[in-house]
Amino acid sequence: MWRRVNLLSPLISRAKLSVLSQVIAGFSSIQKYPFITFVLGGPGSGKGTQCAKIVETFGFTHLSAGDLLRDEISSNSENGVMILDTIKEGNIVPSEVTVKLIQTAMESSRNRKFLIDGFPRTEENRVAFEQIIGAEPDVVLFFDCPEEMMVKRVLSRNQGRIDDNVDTIMKRLKVFRSLSLPVINYYSDKGKLYKIDAVGTENDIFEKVHKVFAAYEF
Fold it and tell me: pLDDT confidence of 178, banded at 50, 70, 90?
């Protein structure tokens, strides 16, 4: 179907072909090989704060699964209405829906480095991501923090969220332990997990995070 390149040599100089090849190679590597980082941790573990620092320092694009769902609801699209109805009924949004929102955000970005914050929360999320995106994360950050400190942080942040009360926080922590720890253990077994001690100042914690990404060439 396609003619061999050497048949075009009268029209295209070798120098131009070389430049063209480099451009295509660079484009392909960006499109086909994104650098994906999952960011996991319980409520109040400080992962949101650290994500902002990673973005500023290493130029990642930050994708929050929760923000993507809320944005889709705000758009009043058919998909957004379905998501809102699902949440109102007390059900979990299907993994496929969340993953496709993440996929759309990744495809619309000119970046190749992504922080995916708060996802996957469950083994089902993990499997759906790998099947739909067709890739595994390069790095999985787990911000490990004592529960009493996470509760204290959430109660003190005063962001006006209705779920920032002791009873709700304890329920969220229980859900995190039961659903997210299997995901964390899975990536630990695969050698992709970096456990970050999330106790200390923001800068102290970021020093530990910095060492993870400093080992990679971007």
Answer: confident
Q: Is the pLDDT of residue 28 over 50?
A: no
Cis amide bond preceding 94, omega within 30: no
List of residues 6+ apart from 79 with CB closer than 8 A: 72, 97
Q: Do the bridges between strand 139-144 and strand 35-41 make them parallel or antiparallel, or are there none, so unpaired?
A: parallel
What does DSSP say about strands 113-117 and 193-197: parallel, antiparallel, or unpaired? Answer: unpaired
State the pTM of this model. Answer: 0.78
Report yes or no: 163 and 172 within 8 Å, Cβ to Cβ: yes
Q: What is the DSSP string of 173-184?
A: HHHIIIIIHHHH
Nearest 5°: phi and psi at 77? Answer: -75, 170
| pLDDT for res 12 | 38
Residue that has been written with the tokens 């993507």 in this structure: 68
pLDDT of residue 163: 53
Cβ-Cβ contacts under 8 Å for 126 (sequence gap 6 or more)? 120, 183, 186
Closest of 101, 157, 94 to residue 127, by C-alpha:
94
